[in-house]
Amino acid sequence: MAAAAALEPWRTAARRKRSSAGRRPRRKEATVAPGPEADGEADDRVILRRIQEAKEDLLVSDFWSSALETITGCLTEHLEQLKATEGTLSEALGNLHLDLPGDESAVTTGSVPGKTLVAGNCPVKCVCYGLGNFATCVIARNQLTFLLLFMEKCRIPRSHCWIYDPLFSQLEIAVLRSLGVIVLSENEEGKRSVCGEPTIFFMLHCGTALYNNLLWRNWSVDALSKTVIIGNSFRGLEERLLTRILKENYPYIAKILKGLEELEFPQASQYTDVFNDTSVHWFPVHKLKQLPTEIWAFQEEPDYQDCEDLEIIRNKTQQLRT
Questions:
Q1: What percent of the chain has pLDDT over 90?
Q2: Torsion sign across C-alpha atoms 26, 34, 54, 49
Q3: In the predicted model, what is the mean pLDDT of residues 212-234?
Q4: How confident is the model at residue 257, as a pLDDT?
Q5: Which of 19, 28, 217, 306 is 20 to 30 Å from the Cα of 81, by its Cα?
Q6: What's the mean pLDDT in 259-283?
Q7: Burial call 290-305: b when 16+ CB within 10 Å, e when fewer
Q8: Measured in whole angstroms, how far is the alpha carbon of residue 114 from the centre of its chain?
């Protein structure tokens, strides 16, 4: 029955106005107010229905259209850069559908979740870390809904999306699989290479070390130029952390600050705790090439031995090997 629920048409509704507000990131909680979900009684049908309800609310919010415009604006520049530097990707990148928010034909009323809406092979990938327990947490569920809607809007196949959180329950893993995304089986600690393909990392409210690890794994002009990160504002990290702490504990973030473009998400009171302090980050080639040569020579893997309040769950198997 989970599969049947996952294949129900996604519905749209009329627009209504939202007010705006914002604040620093808030870590996702594993529980909500008492009820069937909090008691662990929810099944896949309940979770899928609540994702559908979250989608309906998101679609009619002013926040959705504004946030989509923010992302597509960055992605358009990012993909233009790739077309200019990688001629072989030019035709394939044309398959990535970037509609303007006002294009109602792209709302895809009645579209089927889990199905690709674009012909041909689209090389753009999505990787999602740190989503949290979306079965019991409204914040996590709204973030998952946003990710699914974003991929649908840009016509990125769900088979091109990899998701991982060490806190996922077996039920949540089953729901994600029924939605058509790939659930990773190992904690990568954010150390995933783009492998030469344009990749969008969706990492809302993640620990700072996760972003640092991701940058380390892709520490080259070529790899970073193919990387987009939707997550905690790097400018915000720079403002909140002491310069010494940032350079010692998270050196790759500290070194890349002058090599990126960052655009903040819009603020919205309805989603204050969901998307606050969120920005889209991409790395223009001309900025990366302007960084000192010695920056790229430093490629030491982060270990965080002397780092307090790490805020990520480590891969215990990997730690035992080392």
A1: 61
A2: positive
A3: 97
A4: 97
A5: 217
A6: 94
A7: eeeeeeeeeeeebebe
A8: 18
**Which among 199, 186, 307 is positioned nearest to 253, based on CA atoms?**
307
Please enumerate, as own/partner, the contacts of 282-286 that have beta carbons within 8 Å and a separation of 24 or more: 282/74, 282/75, 282/77, 282/78, 282/227, 282/228, 282/229, 283/224, 283/225, 283/227, 283/256, 283/259, 284/77, 284/81, 284/225, 284/259, 284/260, 285/81, 285/85, 285/221, 285/225
Taking the C-alpha atoms of residue 130 and residue 229, their distance in angstroms, rounded to an integer, is: 13
The radius of gyration of the chain's CA atoms, rounded to the nearest angstrom, is 19
* 3 state SS of 266: coil
Please provide the average confidence, as pLDDT, over all residues in the chain.
80
How would you classify the pairing of strands 227-232 and 278-282?
antiparallel
In the numeric block, the tokens 């753009």 are attached to: 124
d(CA 319, CA 98): 41
Judge if pTM exceeds 0.90: no
| Cα 211 from Cα 250, distance rounded (Å) | 9
Instruction: Identify which has the larger pLDDT, 118 or 236.
Output: 236
In this structure, are residues 53 and 232 in contact, taking their beta carbons and an 8 Å threshold?
no
Which residues touch 279 (CB under 8 Å, ≥6 apart)? Answer: 230, 231, 232, 233, 234, 235, 236, 262, 263, 264, 265
Sequence ranges of the domains in the chain: 20-101+120-303
Using CA atoms, how far apart are residues 190 and 213, in angstroms rounded to an integer?
A: 6
Distance of CA 53 to the CA centre of its chain: 21
Q: Is the pLDDT of residue 45 over 90?
A: yes
> Looking at residue 97, what is its pLDDT?
62
